[in-house]
Amino acid sequence: MRRIGLTGGIASGKSAVAELLRAKGAVIVDADVLAREVVEPGTPGLAAIVDRFGRGVLLPDGRLDRARLGQLVFSDADARADLNAIVHPAVRRRAAEVESDAPAGSVVVHAIPLLVETGQAASFDLVVVVDVDPTIQVDRLRARNGLSRADAEARLAAQASREERLRAAHVVIDNSGNRDALEAQVDELWRRLNRPFRRS
């Protein structure tokens, strides 16, 4: 098994890269998906969030109001740290379960937005960073999430800097171009990931 850490800033294109790798046969462990699973109604994760932040972070049907919670944590480092202390351990446990179910010899790609921030880079055989200019990130984030420029910039500021992510990278995928350029880089990455298996 080859364990790959895939990361990048918000709106950098991590999900697009993960889906291209999935199509090639990689097992994708998506931390964003798992983060939603571990705070579903009835989970210990959601109960802990309500204990910390109050029932105001719930929708009328009992699900987590992500927009409301986001407003609370993106402007408050202490609140964000408290949320991360609840969610991240649960996500890591669930990720380990998903990985353990992968077939022998798989390329397992852990897509983790906060890989650098949570100090996980050293636990992977290879770290892939999807990189894009911050101005492009802001534009994409505003278009995708309907945020103001100030809110989009605040979300970028809440993550590791571009320089910090690049220092952790073994491979950098530049997603400032078009889809064809992205696919070509993922093709090359996939060839690299599979070379060790062909030699074994």
Automatic annotation (TrEMBL):
Key words of the record: ATP-binding, Coenzyme A biosynthesis, Cytoplasm, Kinase, Nucleotide-binding, Transferase
Source domain of life: Bacteria
Reactions accelerated catalytically: 3'-dephospho-CoA + ATP = ADP + CoA + H(+)
Major localisation: cytoplasm
Name of the molecule in the record: Dephospho-CoA kinase
Source organism of this protein record: Propioniciclava tarda
Database matches in SUPFAM superfamilies: P-loop containing nucleoside triphosphate hydrolases
EC code: 2.7.1.24
PROSITE patterns reported for this sequence: DPCK (PS51219)
Family: Belongs to the CoaE family.
Keyword Nucleotide-binding included in the entry's annotation: yes
Pfam families tied to this protein: CoaE
